[in-house]
Amino acid sequence: MKEADPVRAVTADVVDKTIAKLGPIPRAMVELQLITGMRPGELGIIRLGDIDRTRPVWEYVPRSHKLEHHGIERRIMLGTQAQTILAPFIDDCLPDEFVFCSRVAAREANIRRRKRSRRHVIAIEGRIPRDVPYTIPAYRRAITRACELAFGMPEDLRSRHHIERAVEALAEPERSRVHEEKLLQAAVWRKRHCWAPNQLRHARATWLAARYGLQGAAVILGHSKLKTTQLYVEANMERARQIAAEVG
């Protein structure tokens, strides 16, 4: 069986160019994940009530996480930069609601589309319930689409719809052949130019390990492979608070 390609950290310049093409919610998610190093699954399920804001460094406890079946609690420290990123999304958020909501994202995307088409934007009155999380597949797709725009993917490769339009004038069997070629070209392009959310976690791990050592990186990222690690949970959390206070 062929081994999967190793996950590589995404570089800062690539992230910056991608962020410029993202909507407000996925942009905030990228920025928050890059600062905290949290897993995409932990990022997507943040509820306001899961964040303890009683200390200068906030603490986020996900309701579910990768290591919960081992009985390990996951606490993610949110320093000043992380708090600034979250601030616009928690102003009108109720304790049991998702901070990053797909319904809010859909409304924002609709408004942007209307502005691009120069149609009149109708104000939406009332509050949108935040009971639908911004899912990880949606997050990943948003990053992919932003990469396509940021790094110049040919327009006729951007979707099956674009590809079908590009080959519709051709007769069979030429149409099928060109269609398959374009699908392959699109896949190759995305592999070269697009990145995934878990690469942000690797980028943060690399930075933390270089500045604070492997142990400092481990307590921030929630790595735990040895049972004896549980004997030092409180010490680790204090170290995590110190690091989060410094890095934001």
Quickly describe the structure.
The chain is mainly α.
Mean pLDDT: 81
Total number of helices: 10
The tally of beta strands, per DSSP, is 3
Uncertain spans: 226-234
In the sheet with the most strands, the strands line up as 1-2-3
Radius of gyration: 21 Å
- State the secondary-structure class: mainly alpha
Indicate the overall shape: globular
Q: Percentage of helical residues?
A: 40-55%
Care to describe what's here?
The chain is mainly alpha-helical and 248 residues long. The protein contains 10 helices and 3 strands, in the order αααβββααααααα. The protein has a 3-stranded antiparallel beta sheet. α2 (24-36) crosses α9 (198-221), α7 runs antiparallel to α8 (174-193) and α9 (198-221) crosses α10. It is globular. The two termini are 42 Å apart.
Q: SSE layout and pairings?
A:
Layout (H helix, E strand, L loop, with lengths): L11 H8 L4 H13 L3 H5 L6 E2 L5 E3 L15 E3 L1 H11 L11 H15 L19 H15 L9 H8 L6 H20 L4 H24 L11 H15 L1
Antiparallel strand pairs: 1-2, 2-3
Helix pairs in contact: 2-4, 2-9, 7-8, 9-10
List keywords for this structure.
globular; 248 residues; three-stranded antiparallel β-sheet
